[in-house]
Specification:
Layout: H1 19-50, H2 54-57, H3 59-78, H4 84-103, H5 108-136, H6 142-171, H7 173-194, H8 207-213, H9 216-237, H10 239-247, H11 251-278, H12 280-301, H13 305-333, H14 338-367, H15 369-390
Helix pairs in contact: 1-5, 1-6, 1-7, 3-5, 3-14, 4-5, 4-7, 5-6, 5-14, 6-7, 6-11, 9-12, 9-14, 9-15, 11-12, 11-13, 12-13, 12-15, 13-14, 14-15
Length: about 400
């Protein structure tokens, strides 16, 4: 398949949508995000096998997210002369190598090295994904194509954590990561078969990010994003220790609970689109407030499995609205630099995930899992107040 653009970089007048290539992007999202989420469901056996605390094992999430921050900010500029197909193929190769390193890790240092490679692939992929999808289909089909690609996140949320937890109990956590490497091989094969040549276009500059952050409303929004995702991720990373020690359930019930969370998160994507159409500001503010309330409820009612299941399911529904709302914020409030702002958003999310997992791990080791949930809930309340205090949600004028 040849590139669908003229030498000047403009879209061809008539181009057939490359839906198979769009599907390969969604499959790539599934593989990357699925690998990112696996430690949440395998934390206990990973820690026991490596002889480390669960808080230290949780830093596998921190390592991935920290490298994701660096990659999301730099990959576009560092690879601006390389065909985008080759760059995406490189990310899939990194995904394979990362999962294999983790599967055979004999120490926490090797484990973290493997997760750093995953972070490079994950952050780099997301920083380029929207621009790539926009080149695969006609302009009128871009919204549909983006929704197909992002569906890989919901699919990973539904399957990775519960299936990882269940299979980890059956065959061990190492074979689960080996299986994730096998899935990455499938991703690589599909991308090689379907992605067209995508010669680089335009010039990416790191200076644009500084310009965006100099705008007060964008800086305030990024602060809110940091708190929302840090609060959520510190909760999600340590949900298994909570269910084991506070709720007192086994791996089968944990898998079922995580599956309920994932399905509810998928439904939350649709709910988010409805809420955003009514009020973007309220959606951005109410989602973290709802998750905070549920976190506080979980610390008081989580000893009962039915209560914990209901609360965690509602948590998944609330969190499902979050990525939809912040994507809508990009299109409305930063219309003049939507792509650069998208990269900045990815970096902020990855930084938040790293901070959330790191702080959550420290709190877990020092004060116990209940303190993790109380701390995270407090951060989420602050996020909601930050949105209400000054995050601009109106449409920004396009820059001439």
């Amino acid at each position: 398949m040849t590139d669908r653009h003229t030498a000047a970089g403009a879209p061809a007048a008539s181009m057939a949508p490359a839906w198979a290539a769009v599907f390969s992007m969604s499959l790539g999202v599934f593989g990357l995000v699925g690998a990112e989420f696996l430690p949440a469901s395998l934390l206990t056996p990973m820690a026991a096998d490596l002889g480390i605390t669960e808080g230290l094992a949780g830093q596998a999430v921190t390592a991935t997210a920290a490298m994701g921050v660096v990659a999301s900010l730099t990959v576009a500029a560092l690879t601006h002369r390389i065909d985008r197909k080759l760059v995406l193929i490189g990310f899939s190769l990194l995904l394979i190598v990362s999962n294999l390193i983790v599967a055979f890790a004999g120490s926490v240092e090797v484990l973290l090295a493997g997760r750093l490679l995953l972070g490079a692939a994950l952050g780099g992929f997301w920083s380029l994904s929207t621009a790539v999808v926009m080149r695969l289909v006609p302009e009128a089909s871009v919204p549909k194509a983006l929704s197909i690609m992002v569906s890989g996140v919901s699919a990973a949320t539904i399957f990775a954590a519960p299936v990882g937890s269940y299979l980890g109990d059956l065959v061990g956590w190492r074979l689960v990561f080996a299986g994730a490497a096998g899935l990455a091989v499938v991703v690589l094969a599909v991308q090689l078969a379907t992605l067209p040549a995508l010669p680089p276009r335009g010039r990416s500059r790191l200076s644009t990010l500084a310009v965006l952050m100099s705008r007060r409303h964008i800086a305030l929004a990024m602060l809110a994003v940091l708190m929302v995702f840090a609060g959520h991720m510190s909760l999600f990373t340590y949900i298994r220790p909570f269910l084991e020690t506070i709720t007192g359930i086994g791996v089968t019930a944990i898998s079922a609970t995580l599956l309920a969370f994932g399905i509810a998160c998928f439904a939350g994507n649709y709910l988010g689109s409805l809420l955003v159409a009514r009020s973007l500001r309220l959606t951005l503010a109410l989602a973290p407030l709802a998750i905070a309330t549920l976190a506080f409820l979980l610390t008081n009612l989580g000893a009962s499995f039915p209560s914990a299941l209901a609360i965690i399911t509602l948590w998944g529904l609330a969190f499902g609205t979050v990525p939809v709302a912040w994507s809508a914020w990009i299109s409305r409030a930063v219309a003049d630099e939507a792509e650069s702002a998208g990269g900045l958003l990815v970096a902020a999310i990855n930084l938040a995930i790293a901070a959330g997992a790191a702080v959550g791990g420290l709190v877990l080791d020092l004060s116990g899992v209940t303190s993790v949930f109380l701390t995270s809930g407090s951060v989420l309340v602050l996020a909601s107040l930050t949105v209400l205090a000054g995050v601009q949600t109106g449409r920004a004028p396009a820059r001439a």
